[in-house]
Amino acid sequence: MSVYLIVIVAVGLSVLGCNAQDSANNPRPTSQAGTGAANDKSAMTVPATTATSAEPIGHVEHTDAEWRKLLSAEQYNVLRQKGTERAFTGEYDHTFAKGAYACAACGLELFTSDTKFNSGCGWPAFYAAKAGDRVKLTPDYSFGMKRVEVTCARCGSHLGHIFDDAPDQPTGQRYCINSVSLKFIPAAGGGDEKKTPATK
């Protein structure tokens, strides 16, 4: 029984981490980039970047059994079961090379290195998606919190959450995304440089 309780507590702390990691050092603003109050659900359901993709996004659908075969156990847990990787353990948390970040499940490009920043929260952070229609935002009230889930618009896979707590960024928003949900595509001639900009 004690082992079971420890597992439950560990999972809960992992999920809470993305929301609480930097709350002490980054108090939520009352409004940012026209998005409204940080605790206002309606304000948080619209991304600051509303540009649309030049090409049709399409739709990818698989059965649960097929997803299990296509993804690793960790990818399946996060992308299809809405899990959360442990803070500061993800492959792309401190990756700042030039390139794009695609959905690890279907390959749709979702973010670019141009909008990636070091938030200090322990997960890759972006202030905007590549195009607003490439991600879907849905209110999430799990674990007794009010958050907004970010999913891939093409395959519906879970990516992370979005918060209005980045006043030093152009949009005031922080897409907090699991590394395991992404696949980095280096830019041509961009090299493999990895460095961590100073946290703002």
Protein architecture, described:
This protein is of the alpha+beta class and 200 residues long. The chain has a single domain, classed as Peptide methionine sulfoxide reductase (Metal Binding Protein, Guanine Nucleotide Exchange Factor, Chain A, Beta Complex). Helices cover 19% and strands 20% of the residues. The chain has 4 helices and 9 strands; from the N terminus they run H-H-H-H-E-E-E-E-E-E-E-E-E. It has helices spanning 2-20, 41-44, 64-70, 73-80; strands at 99-103, 109-112, 116-117, 125-126, 135-140, 147-152, 158-163, 174-177, 182-186. The strands form 2 sheets. A 6-stranded antiparallel beta sheet has the order 3-4-8-7-6-5. A hairpin with a 5-residue loop joins strand 1 (99-103) and strand 2. The longest helix has 19 residues, at 2-20.
Question: Which sheet architecture does the biggest sheet show?
Answer: 6 strands, antiparallel
- Top CATH class: Mainly Beta
- Which whole number gives the mean pLDDT? 79
CATH topology: Metal Binding Protein, Guanine Nucleotide Exchange Factor, Chain A
Strand order of the largest sheet: 3-4-8-7-6-5
What's the number of domains? 1
Number of helices: 4
Structural class call reads: alpha+beta
* Low-pLDDT segments, ≥5 res: 1-11, 20-45
CATH superfamily membership? Peptide methionine sulfoxide reductase
* Oligomerization: single chain
